[in-house]
Amino acid sequence: MIPFPALICVLLVLLPHVVFAQFGDFMKEIDKLSLPGSQALGDDKIVSGLKEALSVGTENTVNLTGNTDGFLKNEAIKILLPEKLHSMDKALRLAGFGPQLDELVVSMNRAAEQAAPLAKPIFKDAVTNMSFDDAKKILNGGDTAATDYFNGKTRDQLATAFKPEVEKTMNQVGVTAQYKELVGQYTTLPFVKVPTFDLDGYVVGKSLDGLFHTLAQEEQKIRTNPAARVTDLLKEVFGK
Q1: Per-residue model confidence as pLDDT tens digits over 175-230
Q2: Is residue 39 one of the residues assigned to a domain?
Q3: Is 151 inside any structural domain?
Q4: How far apart (Å, rounded) are the C-alpha atoms in residues 172 and 68?
């Protein structure tokens, strides 16, 4: 057995070598991190993966909503007559105008479906201009962090783009004329009052609600369903 004083002497001799070796290993790791482009490569991959996911998600969203029946046959986003007009709807159906009201609903949804593709370049610009900090927050955020980001960044711009398209489509398919005719029929009924209502603005708002609802679903698929990660980069970034 080594006497205690001798053991202390041995440790004092060896300890600097041990500490120096550990410090050397530590500095090697620091050197690796400080190599040109090493951290940037990691950042670039995070941003690229997130932007690719958003490109896939927004493309799917526009494809799903911007086709015939994209709104009409999707009960989650189908545009119905507003609550403010429910009394008119009920009264006119009792008076035999149910088919006309149903056609009005179809036409509103057709307007939304026609407007949806206008979102594609606006979403694309939002993805292109996204900062690294934004991308990191989205990547580490909740299941709808990207959708919330888009809603905040693009909703006003989308509304501006959608409004003339919705107005044009609603005029082409006869929504405005149908609505005015139904209001006229409603006013012939006793003891009724027609509420002031911006039908075009209502359809624009509901179109955007449906668009972001669908985008949220697409985002959740990419985050939680490996099968929705259709590229190697998506699998790498979202699989961690």
Answers
A1: 777 777 777 776 777 666 766 678 889 999 999 999 999 999 998 887 777 776 66
A2: no
A3: yes
A4: 16
